[in-house]
Description:
The structure is a homodimer of 546-residue chains. By secondary structure, the first copy, chain A, is an alpha/beta fold. Chain A folds into 2 domains: 2-247, Carbon-nitrogen hydrolase (Nitrilase/N-carbamoyl-D-aminoacid amidohydrolase); 269-466, Rossmann fold (3-Layer(aba) Sandwich), CATH 3.40.50.620. Chain A contains 18 helices and 19 strands. In chain A, the strands form 4 sheets. In chain A, strands 5-4-3-2-1-14 form a 6-stranded mixed sheet, with helices on one face. Chain A has a 6-stranded mixed sheet with strand order 6-7-8-9-12-13. A 5-stranded parallel sheet of chain A has the order 17-16-15-18-19, with helices on both faces. In chain A, helix 6 (299-312) runs parallel beside helix 7 (329-342). In chain A, 56% of the residues are buried.
Amino acid sequence: MKIALAQINxxxxxxxxxxxxxxxxxKKAKSHGVDLVIFAxxxxxxxxxxxxxEFNDFIEKCNAAINKIAKDCEDIAVIxxxxxxxxxxxxxPLHNSAFFISDGKIQYEHHKSLLxxxxxxxxxxxxxxxxxxxxxxxxxxxIALTICEDLWNIGNDPLYTINPMDEIFKHDPNxxxxxxxSPFNYKQAEIRKSILIKNVEKYKLxxxxxxxxxxxxxxxxxxxxMVINKKGEIIEELKYFxxxxxxxxxKKLNINPDKEIKTxxxxxxxxxxxxxxxxxxxxxxxxxxxxxxxxxxxxDSAVTLAxxxxxxxxxNVRAVLLPSAFSSDHSVNDxxxxxxxxxxxxxxxxxxxSYKSFTKTLLxxxxxxxxxxxxxxxxxxxxxVILMALSNKFGYILLNTSNKSEAAVGYGTLxxxxxxxxxxxxxxxxxxxxxxxxxxxxxxxxxxxxxxxKPPSAELRPDQKDSDSLPDYDILDxxxxxxxxxxxxxKEIIAQGFDxxxxxxxxxxxxxxxxxxxxxxxxxxxxxxxFGMGRRIPIVAKYLSR
Amino acid sequence: MKIALAQINxxxxxxxxxxxxxxxxxKKAKSHGVDLVIFAxxxxxxxxxxxxxEFNDFIEKCNAAINKIAKDCEDIAVIxxxxxxxxxxxxxPLHNSAFFISDGKIQYEHHKSLLxxxxxxxxxxxxxxxxxxxxxxxxxxxIALTICEDLWNIGNDPLYTINPMDEIFKHDPNxxxxxxxSPFNYKQAEIRKSILIKNVEKYKLxxxxxxxxxxxxxxxxxxxxMVINKKGEIIEELKYFxxxxxxxxxKKLNINPDKEIKTxxxxxxxxxxxxxxxxxxxxxxxxxxxxxxxxxxxxDSAVTLAxxxxxxxxxNVRAVLLPSAFSSDHSVNDxxxxxxxxxxxxxxxxxxxSYKSFTKTLLxxxxxxxxxxxxxxxxxxxxxVILMALSNKFGYILLNTSNKSEAAVGYGTLxxxxxxxxxxxxxxxxxxxxxxxxxxxxxxxxxxxxxxxKPPSAELRPDQKDSDSLPDYDILDxxxxxxxxxxxxxKEIIAQGFDxxxxxxxxxxxxxxxxxxxxxxxxxxxxxxxFGMGRRIPIVAKYLSR
Lengths: 546, 546
């Protein structure tokens, strides 16, 4: 039997585009003499459709799409994911379903049993778990059809009280199919492979695994669909961060001895590729072409510009240098040099006149109070107004350039440098931003060396340095990682050898700045715990905040 | 047996304050000779603790608090809610638990079975459902202990496949206790009573119901705890929007024939009271006293100011009039008159100078392009910068004045009038804002009549009216209600008789402005479906958006 895996970049709610891509893949599979073509979880709707699932209109459109696709399947079989109505009186209104279509008809509808409801997942918000464990048959092969999480309850720390594959296994299948929507983070590909191989080892069956690829706002899907033979060898691995399509003959599931062994990309390479795809898809799917950003001469905006230029093309990215009286010459020069290296359009717009107009306007209120945070923020906000004015006038999307360390401790101005349609680096710690810069410079100096080596500064008052108000980033980022990614409390972090006062100060900064993060743009998620939909913290709370 | 209900305003993660309030209520109960005092669901942590629940440190602090409280219960029994670790290997790491404490010891730990995971609820994100249905005994009475949703699976459209009270009922209880965290919306009190009475009618048992009161950022808890006798009569109803404490003797569960019958508050009165509590608690719990806001002379900022003045006291609210060249004289006069009526401090700061500085700065880029949206937005953003500068300099929190209709269709400037620490009216449709204004004026003209009667305008260009770009609010709000609150699709709304083009345009505006709402301040939730944590829509989607 010939099985195709169609790894597609879907667009949530864009039924026209999704159906077209699916139909084209079915055509292509037919032309290869394929018996069964497999598409991802909730392929019809895109993943995650979130509260669109609460609209009957949306589910009806999904049903109509499935029926339309079924008509193309007279002489080929298809497995594809879509949300469906739960026909029982009791329980949640929907199922997360996988359709098995052949002979032009829906033959079987499998319902996902294990519904992830943690981090960025909210599936139990919508779906009733499936409780039927059957099997499908095609050309003499018995297929165990599973949906993503259905295979994930296999470790020593089970999150669910049942294991659907154990039930299906009783029907003596020959092949496991798993259709998935498994979002990227820099650890995920490794974890995913290990979980899938564990299943193969347990059930001694070959596994066909299909994932989404492409960005859905903050969620990045890296693809990497695969076929694993029953020895636990990955015999095919589809592309990462790109659409792909392969055909595998079930008679030929031995590893090809000539197969080229791919080198595993580094964490930083993965992050770079994910961010490029994230920016590119955000613009494509919104129907925008051009980005604008403020280029300070510092490392965050430099890395953001380089990524945007790779994602959108240099000619589609406009850099604006917005110097103030506190900007150093080297900042302007570094920024210029970078824009020139990348061949991006840039211009210099001084914020001095507008900054002064505010201090003049506010003179009766501010009187002779000393220069302080309010004045620092005015500068950042004047920059924000100028960038948004250009964005509004010429149809650019403003890219936010804040990093995860800043976002964590609230080192940024709300309605100023925290502005933007999309945060590119909001899930990348400062120390990782430096590594990204070095990665971007791997073949040639794109980002000026001086941008990388000089001490970070917001340049909002004379001789300001980040280290004036924050711990060194080496220390800060490690504490943040323990607190944010690993959910360690103060005692546990201090026990690791970090200074008690620095830990307490850091956690307090994180928790008291939740209100700022509530209003930040969506952040491209590259870590196992990003700010945004996967991290939900009360604002008006009093925990670790004094 | 004498039972006390302690209706308390908890603060999430503020263990010191929560323990103090609980301990004081136990003392008070003892002084009344009470046998059992009942506190709300997750009283120890406050509700909802959200992802703080993922920190072992947080759960350990909850456990420590319970143990501390148990020591106070040598001669009184207590029922109280707290999160606990799940001791089983399988399943989610926590339970949502109710402790039964007597003789200074924890006697029983009940785990919530039905975990709401819809709208603003995310309980299955954290908790494993309880599957043990036992009973507790005190002074010869058998008590069925249930937690909130455990009693809610009673209608014709059951969301869950089990009904915990049916199981507990097999043990032949004498009393039902339900500890809850049931957030306010203007329909909730009515629904809540009807669900509880249905339970009483089904099981023929008296019911003691205890709820939270007070605001937790966007979520407002209205209190209204109650005692229902087995005839289904509400014999005691605790205060709404305030802390309260009552003692009831189980021997005296007949309705008092002299009981004063309270008039049911109107929807608008409920919304007003909820918003006042929401603003007040937001400031109290953050440790702030003073608010600032931009007062335009329009109805939204007028109603916001009146609510803030009631919540915080007139002397704690500063109104800033920020006229431009397009502001009408009547706007400034109406705004002044309102501030005077409320005895709030106000001042006039012209935005002209700063606005002009931007148009001058941007002249090389904008050249001779006609005045448009970019220039309108600059005005709104200049106002934003000035208000935030005053907020930063003097420690005010900026109140956002946008209403739900504007938030829905994106009629507002990001980083301009959409700024603020808290949105007071973001869940109140424009037509409801008018009703609120009339309610505020019920005894005297606080809000100038002219503010209520003049046609709404953003005053960002000459002679602008909201009706230039939006359908009339009467129509718009009805369509929005069908789409947002009732999740009706375009076909269903058009079938109700609304104009097809207006419906399509409206839904498109709602969906394409999701990106703006992503960055708005938290919105006090007063309706059954508010923007914010209870409505989760993808940004980069293509559904009803063309």
